[in-house]
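Extended Data, panel c. Modelled sequence:
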Amino acid sequence: MKKYLALVLALILGLTVCGCSFETEGVNGGFVRETYTGIVEEQLTENGSEYIRVVTGNNEVIDFLITSTTEIDGEENISEGDSVEIDCVHWYETSTYEILKLTVTTVQENITLNRIYVYEKDGFGGVFTITLNDDGTFQYSEGGLSSHIGDGTWSFEDGLVCISEESPDGPRNNYFQVEEDCLVFQAEQSNNFIYVKVSDGERFNANES
């Protein structure tokens, strides 16, 4: 009898820990606790509830529900482009992702200053690099065969970094979306560079050395 009772208790405990997250074909029920990381795409309000839409690490787009009990670690004024780590409950029946704890790293905090960003492809006869300095200036070199060392000032607006240098034809502006330890080129808004034509979405990764 004791062995029977122990087996029943173990089964009940197992179902409780997994959140009764069993599924059979055509039937949804229960929940599971999950963790996600990603970049905030936008904030939403629907039927009086607040959500953040996040592009996760595997490029899945998910709307996460913020409730009155959500614990927020970091900046509470969440903005587009912020990095987030989300501890949530995924309710199967309603397909709702309810946030338990939200850790926010702002876009500005993701900008790594006084560090070299390296183009993910080959530069012009060498490595193509950009350096953002904490005094608001920058320098770039498109590679060893380039005779031009670009410099000027950088700014952060509307979730994008803009590097701006003077040229004989007027200001040359190039824009980047900020992600964790990298700059993602935004071709549509940019003048691009002289020797290397960077494509939209290509990355400059922060040098770890």
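The longest strand covers residues 31-46. This feature is highlighted in the accompanying rendering.
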